[in-house]
Structure prediction request, 434 residues.
Amino acid sequence: MARSALTGTRIRERRTALQVKQADLARGVGISAAYLNLIEHNRRRVGDDLLEALARALGVEPVALSEGAEAGLFDGLREAAAGTEKAGPELERIEEFVGRFPGWAAVLADRQARVGALERVVEAYAERMAQDPFLLDNLHEVLSAVTSLRSTAAILAETEDIEPEWRSRFLRTMAEESLRLSGTAESLVGYLDEMETAETGLAAPLEQLETWLAGRDWHLAELETDAPPAPEVLIEGVPELASAAARELALAHVARAAAEARALPLAAFSDALTELGPEPGLLAARFGAPVEMVFRRLATLPPGLPGRVPAGLVACDGSGTLTLRRPVPGFAPPRFGAACPLWPLYEALARPSQPVRAVIDVAGRLPARFLAYAWCAQHPVGGFDGPVLREAMMLLLPAPPGRTERARAVGSSCRICPRAGCPGRREPSILPER
Prediction:
């Protein structure tokens, strides 16, 4: 578990807030009051066992003492420093900076978050421009009209003695091409504006579904009751589901989530999660449930549930097309185009019904490490001799500290991946290589 130089300060603040005497807390965790005093003044490091004992005695999670509320602030500052070569050894004094100048630290982290959001917008537009047929057609129209205008204007400018009839033809061509260019540009701008200002901000049905789910932290609490509503009632009047196709996807998702809630009741699943940890194979065996069902359940648990850890999830069909994208900090699946071919997801797709587990490092300004579980389920359709549909899923959990196995370097998609010399690269990246 990560250790902060301010862990002792947080222990002291929590103890003081609970009005617990130092001697009483020390006695409760089996150490001397003098040693606890050194810890509270950040003069002694705290081991895992002692930290957990102190957290239990103070009624908080160990991470609240080891990282505190400043954890996100530290991450933002480290990400800002990673974008410059001038950080140097000053990173070692990041907690001192936060402690002395919390306001400026918050401003810098907020600016970095804004820069990161804008970078993702640029990446999404670049990715969309490479995949969206409407954008491609419009850009080709713009280039064609500009080329025609430039050629015609060059002829008029460079030909001194041109017959009136031909001059009229060239002028008429310029007028027509100008109208074509302005019309195409107007259509293109309108399309981009619609993408930005629409209720969902998204065009594809899958994006509308994922936006609705993200707004609910990917958890549908109504389905956890003894009498859950019908799927049609749950999605009625939802503004994010602007299209009929999105509503159809939402109905299928709600029906599937309701079946998962019945098979893996929330209270029992939370108890098993606390006892076994987020190991999908053990949880599937405990409940006799399919692995893919456990994957989805782990990725859609409500915040604050005992034992819950942040989990990302991606799913694809037999063609490799992503059919579900549940992002997690440090991992943002591509919205358009193909994903990284080095994902364990595709390894599982080629090995149905065989578990795949790997530690992965996802490329980014601050590389994020995850423990990835992948599984491919097979669904026969149309009788014994009918086709077999495959659905692969990849669950991403925080990589436990101290794991020593070699991590697999992956990205989001080739177009926005900065890794140099990647053996799986399909096309050049729009980002500078690292």
In short: Residues 197-202 have pLDDT under 50 and may be disordered. The longest strand covers residues 368-380. The two ends are 28 Å apart (CA to CA). Strands lie at 312-317, 322-326, 356-362, 368-380, 388-398, 408-410.
